[in-house]
Design goal:
heterodimer, A: mainly beta, five-stranded antiparallel sheet, 11 strands, about 0% helix, globular, B: mainly beta, seven-stranded mixed sheet
Chain lengths: ~110, ~120
């Protein structure tokens, strides 16, 4: 049973436009959400996170939005750049403030076209 | 930022042999480390939590006698795949919480590609 779902295996966006990656979750105990970027044969790299007490967090070109009632979050990248092409994983935790193993989605392969 | 290394990056072994994978936090201490496994086109699946000075805790369905974890120091955790079989072939990744203020920001190692012939 997939507790974190990324329903789009891939997404193609033109350079300079906005990329929107979506993530849904089913476990209402999740209280912290993270986005990771991953290149082939490498470990994931942390991008941005959001606590369940917030509905938006912004860091440069990256913004994460959280809709708790819909159990949905999204990552916005604007403007999209060629170096953003990678697989993006949504991850969640129910650690309640402590470090804990993460539950990952299957990832979305973002392709930025010139 | 915090750096986590893994060794080896790639290993090919014969069925029935054991393989040890090391995970090190290079510039910070980690009392807890996590081991994940990723099959092709699948998500990273948490296998176990490695605890310095105590036994590892395993996720449901993960055989503790097959995947031996030793957290020998505050900067080193090892995962030993015992009597490896072809179905154990996967990408193994470790992570450690630390670095920036976010309490659950985890830093991942580069991963180890295990191929069992």
């Amino acid at each position: 049973d997939q507790q974190v779902k990324q329903n789009s295996p891939s997404l193609s966006v033109q350079e300079g436009r906005i990329s929107i990656l979506n993530c849904d979750y089913t476990n209402s105990m999740f209280d912290y959400f993270l986005w990771y970027k991953k290149y082939p044969a490498e470990g994931p790299t942390f991008l941005i996170s959001i606590s369940s007490i917030k509905d938006k967090n912004e860091d440069g070109r990256f913004t994460v939005f959280l809709n708790k009632s819909a159990k949905h979050l999204s990552l916005h990248i604007v403007p999209s750049q060629p170096g953003d092409s990678a697989v993006y994983f949504c991850a969640a935790s129910d650690a309640g403030g402590g470090a804990d193993g993460l539950t990952f989605g299957k990832g979305t392969h973002l392709i930025i076209q010139p | 930022g915090a750096v986590v290394s893994q060794h080896p990056s790639r290993v090919i072994c014969k069925s029935g042999t054991s393989v040890k994978i090391e995970c090190r936090s290079l510039d910070f201490q980690a009392t807890t480390m996590f081991w994940y496994r990723q099959f092709p086109k699948q998500s990273l699946m948490l296998m176990a939590t490695s605890n310095e000075g105590s036994k590892a805790t395993y996720e449901q369905g993960v055989e503790k006698d097959k995947f031996l974890i030793n957290h020998a120091s505050l900067t080193l955790s090892t995962l030993t795949v015992t009597s490896a079989h072809p179905e154990d072939s996967s990408f193994y990744i470790c992570s450690a919480p630390g670095g920036r203020a976010a309490y659950n920001e985890q830093f991942f190692g580069p991963g180890t590609r295990l191929t069992v012939l």
